[in-house]
Write a structure and sequence with these properties.
With about 300 residues, the protein is an alpha/beta fold. Helix content is about 30%, strand content about 30%. It has 7 helices and 14 strands. Strands 3, 4, 5, 8, 9, 10, 11, 12 and 14 form a 9-stranded mixed sheet that branches. A 5-stranded parallel sheet has the order 6-2-1-7-13. Strand 10 and strand 11 form a beta hairpin. Helix 6 runs antiparallel to helix 7. The longest helix has about 30 residues. It is globular.
Length: about 300
């Protein structure tokens, strides 16, 4: 089949790689001039090695737990699988190389319209939070948060992350190895102000400050020839905003059901919807207890790295 993949992010490149290996003609259309996601903490669970084994060479640090600092109590959350710190840009470029070696074609600096894709048998939208493909299908927008990050030139190889919850999100500190990252995920209305206050309180002066929209939801169309994957489908974890592993799992579900996009829609909804609903409830409960009744929460918790159930 001739397949158009819109967006050369990790999900689009992964699908291009795997579909090309099966003998399909996959063409990736990317509006940017270069491959590589700029705004991302690059914190992925060890599952990334199952999808792209060669990522071992990209590891900058390893994370085993997170300290959640509520106003009156700190909770230590241990992960069942380590999180690996690596450059998202290099991860994307590595996957692009694998896709090209398998026969996929990647077209950069290419603003394409849906009307230009009539010659393709299937169209897969992997074009992020503001997905053109999603809009062309008149689908609802996912909920959007703001993510802001910046860096301090301070080497940090600690094996834990720290977060400071707010009512609608949290600020974080991630040891990136050769430097330290600080950031926030919050509502678009509150993120900038809360982050500025956080930086001021902690006397932090950041370099290379970036921001991006983080989608949250599950929007996969009931369409036989056009579908969505990754951020375009709003697939990010409700408690952290991370989406790489969830997007790659969705890509595997798509590949398992390809070329039947209706089966993919049903299978992915069945897999992700209960996890999204449970995660939202669990996150709200932990935040409520953390702010209102911190004594009830245990000091030490162990969770699955990518799923809360």
């Amino acid at each position: 089949m001739k397949i158009a993949i819109i967006g050369a992010g990790i999900n689009g490149l992964y699908l291009a790689w795997k579909l090309s290996e099966r003998g399909h003609k996959a063409i990736v259309f990317e509006k940017k001039q270069r491959i590589g996601k700029q705004v991302c903490s690059g914190l992925f669970s060890e599952r990334i090695l199952e999808f792209i084994p060669k990522t071992n060479a990209l590891i900058q640090n390893q994370i085993e737990s997170v300290l959640i600092h509520f106003p009156k109590k700190t909770i230590n959350v241990k992960f069942s699988k380590k999180f690996l710190v690596m450059s998202h840009i290099e991860l994307d470029r590595l996957t692009a190389g694998l896709a090209q070696k398998s026969g996929a074609e990647i077209k950069l600096n290419c603003n394409i319209a849906m009307s230009d894709l009539n010659a393709f048998d299937r169209i897969i939208g992997c074009d992020g939070a503001k997905s053109m493909v999603r809009k062309s299908l008149n689908l609802p927008e996912p909920t959007h948060c703001s993510g802001i990050q910046g860096f301090v030139s301070e080497a940090n190889f600690s094996n834990y992350v720290e977060v400071w919850p707010f009512k609608g999100g949290f600020s974080w500190k991630i040891p990136q190895g050769k430097e330290t990252e600080y950031g926030i995920i919050e509502s678009q209305k509150e993120a900038k102000l809360l982050f500025e206050e956080f930086l001021k309180e902690n006397n932090l002066h950041l370099e290379r400050i970036n921001s991006a929209i983080v989608p949250q939801g599950l929007i996969i169309p009931s369409h036989s020839t056009i579908t969505l994957c990754g951020d375009a489908a709003g697939l990010t974890k409700p408690w952290s905003g991370g989406g790489v592993i969830w997007g790659l799992i969705a890509a595997e579900i798509l590949l398992l059901n390809f070329p039947d996009f209706l089966k993919y829609q049903k299978a992915s909804t069945k897999f992700f919807l209960p996890k999204i609903l449970f995660s939202k409830i669990a996150t709200k409960m932990v935040y409520f207890l953390g702010f209102k009744f911190p004594r009830i929460l245990p000091k030490n918790i162990r969770i699955e790295s990518d799923f809360l159930m």
